[in-house]
Amino acid sequence: MAETGIGAAVRRKEDQRFLTGAGNYVDDIARPGQTYACFVRSPHAHARIRSVDTKKAAAAAGVVAVFTGKDVADAKLGSLFCGWMVTDRHGQPMKTTPHPVLAADTVRYVGDHVAVVIGESREAAAAGAELVSVDYQALPAVVSSVAALKSGATQVHKDVPGNLVYDWVLGDQAATETAFKRAAHVTKIDLVNNRLIPNAIEPRASVGDYDRGTDQLTLYTTSQNPHVHRLALSAFIQIAPETKIRVVAPDIGGGFGSKIFIYAEECVVLWAAKKIGRPVKWTADRVEAFQSDAHGRDHVTHAELAMDKDGKFLGFKVSTIANLGAYLSTFSSSVPTYLYGTLLAGQYATPAIFCEVKGVLTHTAPVDAYRGAGRPEATYVVERIVEEAARQLKIDPAELRRRNFIAPSAFPYQTPVALQYDSGNYVGALDKALKVADYAGFARRKAESTKRGKLRGVGFSSYIEACGIAPSQVVGSLGAGVGLYEAAEVRFNATGGVTVFTGSHSHGQGHETTFAQLVGDRLGVPIENIEVVHGDTGRIPFGMGTYGSRSLAVGGSAIDKAMDKIIAKGRKIVAHLMEASEGDIEFKKGMYTVAGTDKKMSLGEVAFAAYVPHKLPTDQIEPGLDETAFYDPKNFTFPFGTHICEVEVDPETGRTSIAKFTAIDDFGHIVNPMIVEGQVHGGIGQGIGQALLEACVYDEKTGQLLTGSMMDYALPRADDVPSYTVGLTTTPCPHNPLGVKGCGEAGAIAAPAAVMNAITDAIGAPLEMPATPARVWAALQKRAAKAA
Amino acid sequence: MKVSMTVNGKPASAEVEARTLLVEYLREHLRLTGTHVGCDTTQCGACTVHINGDAVKSCTIFAVQCEGANVLTIEGLAKDGKLHPMQESFKENHGLQCGFCTPGMVMAGIDIRRRHKNPTEETVRHELEGNICRCTGYHNIVKAILTAKM
Ligand code: FES
Ligand code: FES
């Protein structure tokens, strides 16, 4: 088993189909009689809809149907919704925004969905959409969160006065103010966390299908959480009862958060399929993806760190304005609050922390969770200010961190911002990172760069994240509309082989391999004989899906719990067949043995006996070997680590190249180290993208999206990033059965601060992300002018 | 318009519109859905196939322009159930996650190795500029292309 068991770098089972073009992505699906949907979208950031004339479109060749906001209102389709109710500093619930699946009277961002044309072909639908004439009365728009808060700013929704969704606080304000009074030194920083567009390479797509005979609706859609989709389509959009809806999320080409949410297009496609009695397919083109996928980040922050004369942190205060876009997307409200404010302790024993966050509406696409979701923003604030403090106090940044780390002996550690960290060894990860990155040799490398006329800098990011979201009671008390457990079914087949049904969803993470390793290792079954099924509400138990690096910690634990039940039932069967007492029967790697005897029976034999129960007392032992478990985590998990980035800046051009990137992470136990490394690489790639290249820009006056294509929005290419050096320390999670934590977001959380700290070190001047050559060059000129 | 070409070693002909892109022809007429569409501006490379041995973005050429051509897609790479060395290398090096960019990456990778006998990491990274991957951070893709046994 060792070569495919827990800890082995098993090559992925799913790769065979992906490498031979046999994957099954949503756009690959073709249902008989399928039609095609094309959405009519707002060209304005803000406008009143005077009228929508669909006559010409409806009469055009190849057009099957046209639906508008009035049609969905007449059909009483429900509104898109936000599933997390945040309570503000005065104890009041946040403001919410209705969000019809097709706009009825007002559009609020460029790309807002106004009507849908359904055609016999993609081309017919698109040509029809051109013929829909919408009479807009353009209105003034506001796109920046800071501007939206100014008095007199244009209102995005009349029910949200001053565009303020909530004014939320966390931590002890009085204690923090007192700490600042005692401070020998205060470091202040102003930061913008740039708005990003996720850009999974597979665009969103949906196929709605209706079976008249059974009155069943099937939605094939790009979802990270098909059961959440089913629940929403039923309970909120009110298309049909849950029993009548099946949601299938087959192979999905990347998500990064953007495919968690419930979007208008998938609701419309499913509803329309029933309405016209034919399958309806919609695939976003990239322009639509830029305009209408939920965006990420977009914070404006002021932070202050109070220290004593030795650089010991005394207090930390953070004030953030978070842009939520034009409507509240599914989990948007939780991202800048419970997934952000709670992480502001970082790895440090800062005794007093106070954080305030204003969530603001603007005339831009909705903003929601994007890889890391709140935690990259928190890490960016903490790690930028710590490094700035080190610079001001002239203390080595590694040393300043060391002085302030929560000690390994201090766990469990209650932070001043709600979370209780379960375990950690921050100094361990830092020390390893220093060694692997050869920090001691930095001065030499810098001198060498200087000789070549280049500016070299080094930057750290010692991050913490809260993953494995989350204990249902805790998130429920904080306003979440759902529980955050996970479900699994482990089905031993009569003739051998195991089928695992998981509520987790893989959109690149390799669950078919990792989960097979988990099951194979414990049940003693070769991984080729294990089939992992996910992404189909018609087959899997009600699961919550994949985001927040939760698949292994929560989904894997659910599988483990189902295996507990399988093993326990097998023990009963063995006890009966071998006439032994249950207490004497041991189980290891697929084999039951009776203590003190040479009697043994394999799980395979037990399974056969369970399905052909000729010798079982079926009034006491049910036939079959098939168990379902729901696992609700006891706490978040807390992966951590230190990333160190070294950059070289060309002062002539302002171009930054990453000379070295070292990541030491602690994810607890590892099932497949190859997959874990891949997850870290991918996260770092996106983090470097945020730091150096990516920025979503709306025109301040018109609200037009200026970065609406891959030609205008710079995604990292292979020659923008280096090869990465990654390594691990191992501090197992103490409260889940596998001791695992989650690895999917670490890179995106840690990397931006490491890169920006390195550039700041290199050029000796502050600047905002993305650190484009133009910005770096301008910062250098400014610094030179100041010095002159 | 009628168009005839060889796709993965087999003759294929069909009536298409003049505006039909090669990628649409492959995906929708021939149901060869391994070739993907990730953008509308010729940036992502998910649609890369070989036309007469050269890597070409199939979203940026009309089907009718391929009259008489020899087209190879990801589906045609493995021979008798045996993966092409580039496919093998992607698997061995974990050069794919969600798999969406992968067909284009593999086809581009083969072309890079055909044109550069012993490429450096820098060459491979530079040559890959026309293929975007959002999952892997490129590390393992570059490794896979560099070490493919071809
Ligand atoms: S689909 Fe051809 S380059 Fe993106
Ligand atoms: S593997 Fe997902 S885009 Fe490359």
Count of spatially separate domains of chain B: 2
Question: CA-to-CA gap between the ends of chain B?
Answer: 39 Å
Q: In the CATH hierarchy, what is the superfamily of the largest domain in chain B?
A: Beta-grasp domain
What small molecules does this complex bind?
FE2/S2 (inorganic) cluster
Q: What structural class do you assign from the helix and strand content of chain B?
A: alpha+beta
Structural class of chain A: alpha+beta
What shape does the CA trace of chain B take? globular
Strand order of the largest sheet of chain B: 2-1-5-3-4
CATH topology of the largest domain in chain B: Ubiquitin-like (UB roll)
CATH first level of the largest domain in chain B: which class? Answer: Alpha Beta
**What is the strand tally of chain B?**
5
Count of helical segments of chain A? 20
What is the helical fraction of chain A, as a range of percent? 25-40%
Report the C-alpha radius of gyration of chain A, rounded.
Answer: 27 Å
Pick out the low-confidence regions of chain A: none
As a percent range, the share of helical residues of chain B equals 25-40%
Gross CATH architecture of the largest domain in chain A: 2-Layer Sandwich
Query: Biggest sheet of chain A, open or closed, and with what strands and sense?
Result: 7 strands, mixed
Strand content of chain B: 15-25%
